Amino acid sequence: MMNKRVSRYFLTGFYLCIMSFSAASADLDKLQNMCMACHGDNGVNPYQSIPDLRGQSLVYLRNQMAAFKNGERQDITMSKVAQLLSDDDINKLTKYFSEQ
Length: 100
Ligand code: HEC
Known about the structure:
Elements: H1 4-19, H2 28-39, H3 58-70, H4 78-84, H5 87-98
Helix pairs in contact: 1-2, 3-4, 3-5
Bound molecules: heme C.
Heme C binds next to helix 1, helix 2, helix 3 and helix 4.
């Protein structure tokens, strides 16, 4: 289990990250860096409460992001992350992680 301290650390980092780009013109590198802070460089991370993205199918990843964005799937972090992303961003990011 991820302890509270660690998850607070992540949330702080996350809010700093989202303040550093504007959703409308976010470039892919910055978005990827934000994802990697939690999910790991190549989609694999050491935290039990964060799922690995590597090896997931493109369709699965895209559907999860769409579900976070439209509220069907709820998570304190991912719901906010997904709402910042355009459909184009989601396509690029999920393609990247599915190819790791
Ligand atoms: C602050 C940490 C954090 C950041 C930043 C973050 N994620 Fe997540 N992500 C999570 C957590 C925690 C979950 C698990 C949510 C749950 O339990 O439903 C998750 C779940 C997911 C899932 C669903 C995976 C599955 O197996 O169902 C996808 C896809 C995903 N994230 C993609 C991304 C992408 C793309 C980005 C960057 C734009 C990103 N995440 C940024 C923490 C993060």
